Amino acid sequence: MAQTPQSGSGPALDFFPPPAQPRAFAVQRCIDDAAAAALAGAAIGCGEAALARPVVAIGNFDGVHAGHRAVIAACRALADELGRPAAMLTFAPHPRSFFNPDKPVFRITPDGVEETLLARLGLDGMIVLPFNAALAAMTAQSFFDDLLVRGLGVSGIVVGHDFHFGKGREGSPAFLQARGAAAGAPVRIVDKVTGDGDDAAVSSSRIRAALRQGDIAAANALLGYRWFVRGEVRHGQKIGRTLNYPTANIRLPDDCQLAHGIYAVRVLVDGVVRGGVASFGRRPTFDNGAPLLESFLFDFSGDLYGKTLDVEFLGFLRGEAKFDSIEALVEQMDRDSAEARRILAADPSPPSVLG
């Protein structure tokens, strides 16, 4: 099996480099009955000329972690070799959400961010296929012949070593390689990318597990950058300002399973990155309400209501706790702020997407 070997957590990839020139990025969202149309022999290229006969990297690239970036780099290289555009082919909703609708998938990448990251990594666009009953029922052979080759007109395919597809996950990388050779569409298989000090593959599942435990250091190491969230600042109860700790309050998606606790953070505000300390949780000292991310920005004064902020996480300070008095809470908040400033000053984390 021909492979593009990648090992270790630091493959020779530029990490989200600022583009010398802005790259045009096309997003192709295929019709809901794309799978049925492909089975009927119809082209489903969705009209994006910029992505005609693309080389595709297939998968759900949630997190755009080091393993994903190895696949993307191989896709870009094959596309350049063939003189074709490079695109990510992904699915919405996430297949796990389709098969288990009562178990929301904890999404690592904030909504609206994925396109920006993919463009900075050199892709020309992304193709989004609706994941529905028709697609789930497709055989591996039909997925390749009808959807990839005839429907989308792909020129080449790149997948990870553990990619499986088709009804019952019957399609394997080896199957893709055999079908690709017969169809004249080269297929590249990218070997696993491992974390520092272990042989386990970097995966979105491992990153989610680390975030659930509040292990920001492990999550950031696996991602190869600092995990961040995005959201609009909303009005809260304004308790923080009475404690001399005014906060920017953001409601994270319901699927967010980040451990409740206190974190050292950096926040992008109007193009400027500022350090801070944040609490994510239910505020047990006050109301034990719905989970909320509350960020206190150091050395900042201004109105943030209605603004969209990116908040990246550098370190976990402690778990959420209920205090017997406001005085005890404020004393702990002072200690948390000092520790967050120390972490920010040391700045041992991986690179930042924010700047």
TrEMBL record:
Claim: Membrane is one of the keywords in the record: no
The protein's enzyme class: transferase
Catalyzed reaction equations: FMN + ATP + H(+) = FAD + diphosphate; riboflavin + ATP = FMN + ADP + H(+)
EC number assigned by the record: 2.7.1.26, 2.7.7.2
An annotated Gene Ontology molecular function: FMN adenylyltransferase activity
InterPro entries on file: FAD_synthase, Riboflavin_kinase, Riboflavin_kinase_bac, Riboflavin_kinase_bac/euk, Riboflavin_kinase_dom_sf, Rossmann-like_a/b/a_fold
CDD domains reported in the protein's UniProt record: FAD_synthetase_N
Pfam families, A to Z: FAD_syn, Flavokinase
The entry's keywords: ATP-binding, FAD, Flavoprotein, FMN, Kinase, Multifunctional enzyme, Nucleotide-binding, Nucleotidyltransferase, Transferase
Coiled coil listed as a keyword: no
Pathway note: Cofactor biosynthesis; FAD biosynthesis; FAD from FMN: step 1/1; Cofactor biosynthesis; FMN biosynthesis; FMN from riboflavin (ATP route): step 1/1
Domain Riboflavin kinase: 222-345
Family designation: Belongs to the ribF family.
Cross-referenced PANTHER family: RIBOFLAVIN KINASE, RIBOFLAVIN KINASE/FMN ADENYLYLTRANSFERASE
Function: Catalyzes the phosphorylation of riboflavin to FMN followed by the adenylation of FMN to FAD.
Protein name per Swiss-Prot or TrEMBL: Riboflavin biosynthesis protein
Native species: Camelimonas fluminis
